[in-house]
Amino acid sequence: MPISTPFVCHSISTLEISKRLGISQPTASQLVKRGEKIVKEKQLKVMG
What we know:
The protein is mainly alpha-helical and about 50 residues long.
């Protein structure tokens, strides 16, 4: 499952990610931020 947020993917929120992965919403939010940082640092393109 790709890392996504409403403003990246427009289809899945951090709340939905947390439910699907069985983690808390704040943890999902931290993971999304970490993923966004990696994407930016490595100049990757996110499909979605």
